[in-house]
Amino acid sequence: MSWVIVPFMEMTPPFDELKELAGNIMEWWAENGKNRERVGELILRLGMRAFLEAVGLEPVPQSIITPRANPFFFWHQADFDAEAAGRTYIKI
Amino acid sequence: MAEKAERITDIGPPHYDKFLPPVIQENYGKWKYHEIPEPGVLRHVAESGAEIYSVRIASPRILTTLQARDLCDIADKYCGGFLRATSRHNFEFLVSDKSQLEPLKAELAKRGIPKGGTGHSITNIVHTQGWIHCHTPAIDASGVVKAVMDDLFEYFGSHQLPAQLRISLACCLNMCGAVHCSDIAILGIHRTAPRIFHDKLRHLCEIPTTIASCPTGAIRPHPDKSIKSVVVNEERCMYCGNCYTMCPAMPLFNAEKGGVALLVGGKVSNAKHPPMFSRLGVPYLPNNPPRWPETVAAVRKIVTKYAEGANKWERVGEWINRIGWEKFFEVCDIPFTFQHIDDYKWAYDTYRTSMHFKF
Asked: What is the rounded distance in angstroms from the CA atom of residue A74 to the CA atom of residue A63?
């Protein structure tokens, strides 16, 4: 089954946003996919984060049914940089 | 042949029925119902009409011997010494004589021992060892619990929440605290790979067992054969601390990067819905002793929003399932991050495959 990655995109001609996204996805897949590997399998192999970052999408809660139940999540240098620049994970 | 005397061994604790109050022994297995006449007091009624009152009080998980003696003294005075500890580290005085109930409550009030933790309240926060004892914690345990519970104290001695709310703390994700089914789980997380002391490692550790300890296969022998040590593939490391358990020359604790994650919406009870796992709510809050203000504020915010939004009898997870996770993140002002998206092998079960979502 396909997954929601963009819950809403406004459709106005000439649909550049959509074309760009589709192009980015194909490009990332062509670059990273193994022989006979389809896009969904590639996302499962490299991770949703790698995919979203490569095609330039922000994480959105509409894309999931539930968040993760396991505590084994990864942190990149980009996260630490964003925290140094003031990112917080809950607004009080 | 003479009968042999029963062999006495020191294996195992004495049978618990030695410590039951007479009224429980007499009515064992024949209890009809219970009710909660007021916060902190339970009344159990047997088929015979006998009754017993349990007065539940707040107590820390780690008691001083002096405090334990005080509690025993109170129990001796008012309820024949029958005292029990609940699985969430509250104490209960088992009062068989109703006339002792009011004097006991007065004595507790005089000593400043709060009673509560029953019914639709926040009962004691269960927690792990933390800095008192454990070697891999990312955060303290009792310190955070004290700070959070001080803030939420109004919910301990009252029944003002929609349903009971269970908060637990585990100070690292190896989870001896088993907090994965709590309404709100406070979880210590490491966020950096272990440091390696190459000069010490060869004296302290067995390299093969250290390599074998890594669940993701991120540790390999040092590529320079003259250095008897290991290297860590930081991209693969999931900060679990197994290698530090095997090898003290690979400490994981990082005072700046380590911190707290909040997982929400779990429950153990079978009522209405099957048990549920807690799921990631807030991926990171700083480890900020001695009072952890960010963690305290975040927990309070979730509790407040839950109290406002949930229907009567709805646990946190049931409330979230009703309104949807996207709404939960919105009402609690939690920005959605990459960390929330599962990336475990079967993660696709959590990805949305339909248009049934809200904005």
From this structure: 19
Contact B281 A66 (CB under 8 A): no
The pLDDT score that the predictor gives to residue B2 is 62
Give the pLDDT mean for B255-268: 94
**Which tens digits make up the pLDDT trace of B110-163?**
999 999 999 999 999 999 999 998 989 999 999 999 999 999 999 999 999 999
pTM, to two decimals: 0.92
- Joined tokens for residue B143: 């310190």
Closest to A2 in 3D by CA, of A81, A76, A83, A63: A63
Q: How many CB atoms lie within 10 A of CB B62?
A: 15
Chain B touched by A86 (CB under 8 Å): no
Q: A72 at the B interface (CB within 8 A)?
A: yes
When CB atoms are compared, the residue of A2, A7, A92 closest to B357 is A7
Pair type for strands B184-189 and B167-170? parallel
Global ipTM: 0.94
Q: Would you call A64 and B175 a contact, using CB atoms and an 8 Å cutoff?
A: no
* Residue whose token pair is 């290698």: B243
Chains A, B: CB contacts under 8 A, how many? 143
Q: Is B341–A68 a contact, with Cβ atoms under 8 angstroms apart?
A: yes
The confidence band for B81, taking pLDDT boundaries of 50, 70 and 90, is: very high
Q: Are B4 and B24 in contact (CB under 8 A)?
A: no
Kindly tell me the sign of the dihedral angle through the C-alpha atoms of B65, B69, B72, B74: negative
Map tokens 């020191």 to a residue: B10
Position B337 scores a pLDDT of 96
Interatomic CA distance for residues B130 and B46, integer angstroms = 42
